[in-house]
C-alpha cells in the first residue's frame, strides 16, 4: 500500500473542505457552484458569472468570530522557561497567540487541523546554551491544515485509545538548475509507533515509487517517546474524528445567494434597456431605408398598419429574485447568530436568557475551549522535549461574550450588519460584552463612520469579466 493512501473519513470530507475554502476566498464563480445555462459557450459563461459581485457573508462572519475569541488576550500562566519560546513558537516568526488564532481560523473554517511538535535536524550536543538560544535549536510547533492530515490510526493500548499513525502531506520546492524556476513537489511525513516507540519517517517519490529518505527516533535524555507528539484539534475536542465545519451551512446559503445574484444580473443585463421595434416596414433596401436612433431622427412609415414602439420588461420575474436574495441574506444572519448562541436559547425570551448561563453550548465557545486545550497539549509536548517542568499549564481563550444580555433579534441584526460591512466587528464585541449597542469610546456619529471606514469591504470583486 502506498504512503499517500487516504483515510476513508478524509475522502468523505474533502468536498466540504473545498467548498469552505472556495467560499471564504470568494472563488465561487465556477461550474461546481453555478451550472452553465443550456448551450452556453465558455465566453458567455464567463460573462454570466462575472457580472455580479460575491457578497462574502461567510468570510465576514468567520473574521468576526475569530475577532471575538481574541478581542481580549488569552489568559496564560506558563513557566518562565517558555518566555522566549512563545515569542516564536513555530520558528517561523509566529507568536503563541498568532498560532492560536490560525488554529481558531482553521477550526471555524473547516472544523479540523493538527499541530506537530518537532525537533530541528541539528543536535544540541556541542553547542553552548547561548548558542542553542541564539540559533533556536529547540522544539517547535508546526500547524497542519485538515487537507494535509491524510491518514491516521488509533490503537488500543492497555485499555485506552492511542494514536499510532499520522501521515502528513507537505509541499516543498525541489532545487533545479535554473535559479528562477520553481518545482513544487509533495513529500509525506509519517509519524508512527514502532515497537511501541515514536518513529518519524519522510517519504519522497522517486521514479514513480515512494522511498524513505529520512528515519529518526526522537528521544529525550536518551529515552524514546512512547507516544506521538501530534495534537488533533476539531470543533469540540482533540479527538481524531472529523466534525462538520461550523460555517458550512452558512457557506451553502452564501453560494445559493450568489447563484440568485447571477440570475438577477443576467436578467437585468438583457431587460434593463428598452429595445425599439417596428412592424410593417419594408423599406427599399437602400441606405436611406435603414432606421436610425437618436434625438435628431424621426421615423416616417407610409404603411398605416405599421406599428412602432419599445419592448420593455414586465412581470414579477426579477422582483422574485430580489425577494429570494433578501430572504437568503436574512437566513445567513440567523445562521451566523446561532454560532454564538445555544440553539434552544434562540427561541427563548430575553428575560429567560438572562436567567441562564450564557453560551454553554455555543459553537464559538466550543471552539474557544478546543483551542485552549489544544495549545496546552502541544505546549506540554514542547516542555517534554525541552526538559521544562510544566505540572500546571494554563492557556484560556476568551469565552466572555455575555450572550444572556443580548436579545436574539438584536444579535441577528448585528450579524447582518457585519456580513454586509455596515457594522464594525468592534461594535459586536462591545455589544456582547456589555449588553449595549455602541462602544463607550464612540461618542458621536463621525467616530462611528470612521470605524466603518476602517473595515474591509464586504463585497469580494469577481475577477472573471
3D structure, described in words:
Helix 1 crosses helix 6 and helix 3 packs across helix 11. The longest helix is centred in the middle third of the chain and has 24 residues. The chain contains twelve helices and 16 strands. Strands 5-6-7-8-9 form a five-stranded antiparallel sheet, with no helix packed on it. Strands 4-3-12 form a three-stranded antiparallel sheet, with helices on one face. Strands 1-16 form a two-stranded antiparallel ribbon. The C terminus is likely disordered. It is α+β, with helices and mostly antiparallel strands and 465 residues long. The chain starts with 7 loop residues before the first helix and ends in a 5-residue tail after the last strand.
N-end to C-end Cα span = 45 Å
How are the strands of the biggest sheet laid out side by side? 5-6-7-8-9
Strand percentage, roughly? 15-25%
Q: How many DSSP-defined strands? A: 16
- Major sheet attributes: 5 strands, antiparallel
- Structure classification: alpha+beta
Number of helices: 12
The residue-averaged pLDDT reads: 81
* Whole-angstrom Rg: 29 Å
Q: What low-confidence regions span 5 or more consecutive residues with pLDDT below 50?
A: 343-361, 457-465
Helix amount: 25-40%
| Shape annotation | elongated
Which series of helices and strands comes N to C?
HHEHEHEHEEEEEEEEEHEEHHHEHHHE
Please summarize what this structure is.
This protein has 465 residues and is α+β, with helices and mostly antiparallel strands. The protein has helices at residues 8-25, 42-50, 57-69, 96-109, 129-134, 248-271, 317-338, 350-354, 363-385, 408-420, 425-434, 445-454, and strands spanning 54-55, 75-77, 112-118, 140-145, 149-157, 160-173, 184-194, 197-206, 209-216, 219-220, 223-224, 230-234, 275-279, 307-311, 394-396, 459-460.
Amino acid at each position: 500500500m502506498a504512503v499517500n493512501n487516504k483515510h476513508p473519513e478524509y475522502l468523505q470530507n474533502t468536498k466540504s473542505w473545498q467548498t469552505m475554502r472556495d467560499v471564504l476566498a470568494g472563488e465561487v464563480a465556477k461550474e461546481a457552484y453555478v451550472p452553465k445555462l443550456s448551450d452556453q459557450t465558455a465566453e458567455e459563461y464567463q460573462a454570466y458569472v462575472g457580472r455580479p459581485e460575491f457578497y462574502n457573508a461567510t468570510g465576514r462572519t468567520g473574521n468576526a468570530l475569530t475577532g471575538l475569541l481574541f478581542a481580549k488576550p488569552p489568559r496564560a500562566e506558563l513557566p518562565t522557561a517558555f518566555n522566549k519560546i512563545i515569542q516564536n513558537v513555530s520558528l517561523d516568526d509566529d507568536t503563541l497567540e498568532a498560532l492560536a488564532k490560525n488554529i481558531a481560523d482553521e477550526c471555524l473554517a473547516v472544523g479540523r487541523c493538527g499541530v506537530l511538535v518537532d525537533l530541528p535536524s541539528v543536535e544540541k550536543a556541542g553547542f553552548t546554551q547561548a548558542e542553542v538560544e541564539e540559533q533556536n535549536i529547540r522544539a517547535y510547533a508546526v500547524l497542519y491544515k485538515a487537507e494535509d492530515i491524510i491518514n491516521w490510526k488509533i490503537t488500543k493500548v492497555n485499555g485506552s485509545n492511542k494514536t499510532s499513525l499520522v501521515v502528513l502531506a507537505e509541499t516543498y520546492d525541489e532545487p533545479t538548475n535554473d535559479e528562477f524556476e520553481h518545482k513544487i513537489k509533495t513529500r509525506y511525513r509519517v509519524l508512527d509507533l514502532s515497537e511501541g516507540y515514536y518513529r518519524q519517517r519522510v517519504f519522497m517519490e522517486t521514479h514513480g515509487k515512494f522511498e524513505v529518505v529520512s528515519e529518526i527516533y526522537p528521544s529525550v535524555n536518551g529515552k524514546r517517546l512512547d507516544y506521538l507528539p501530534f495534537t488533533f484539534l476539531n470543533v469540540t475536542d482533540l479527538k481524531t474524528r472529523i466534525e462538520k465545519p461550523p460555517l458550512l451551512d452558512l457557506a451553502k446559503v452564501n453560494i445559493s445567494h450568489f447563484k440568485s445574484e447571477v440570475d438577477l444580473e443576467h436578467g437585468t443585463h438583457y431587460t434593463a434597456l428598452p429595445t425599439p421595434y417596428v412592424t410593417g416596414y419594408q423599406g427599399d433596401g437602400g441606405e436611406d431605408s435603414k432606421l436610425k436612433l437618436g434625438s435628431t431622427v424621426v421615423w416616417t412609415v407610409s404603411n398605416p398598419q405599421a406599428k412602432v414602439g419599445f419592448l420593455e420588461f414586465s412581470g414579477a420575474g426579477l422582483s422574485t429574485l430580489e425577494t429570494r436574495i433578501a430572504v437568503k441574506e436574512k437566513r445567513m444572519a440567523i445562521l451566523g447568530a446561532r454560532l454564538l448562541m445555544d440553539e434552544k436559547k434562540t427561541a427563548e425570551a430575553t428575560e429567560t436568557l438572562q436567567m441562564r448561563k450564557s453560551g454553554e453550548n455555543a459553537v464559538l465557545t466550543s471552539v474557544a475551549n478546543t483551542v485552549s486545550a489544544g495549545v496546552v497539549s502541544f505546549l506540554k509536548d514542547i516542555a517534554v522535549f525541552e526538559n521544562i517542568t510544566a505540572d500546571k499549564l494554563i492557556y484560556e481563550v476568551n469565552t466572555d461574550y455575555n450572550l444572556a444580555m443580548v436579545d436574539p433579534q438584536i444579535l441577528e441584526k448585528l450579524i447582518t450588519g457585519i456580513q454586509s460591512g455596515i457594522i464594525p466587528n468592534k461594535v459586536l464585541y462591545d455589544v456582547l460584552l456589555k449588553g449595549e449597542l455602541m462602544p463607550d469610546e464612540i461618542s458621536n456619529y463621525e467616530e462611528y463612520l470612521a470605524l466603518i471606514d476602517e473595515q474591509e469591504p464586504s463585497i469580494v470583486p469577481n475577477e472573471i469579466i
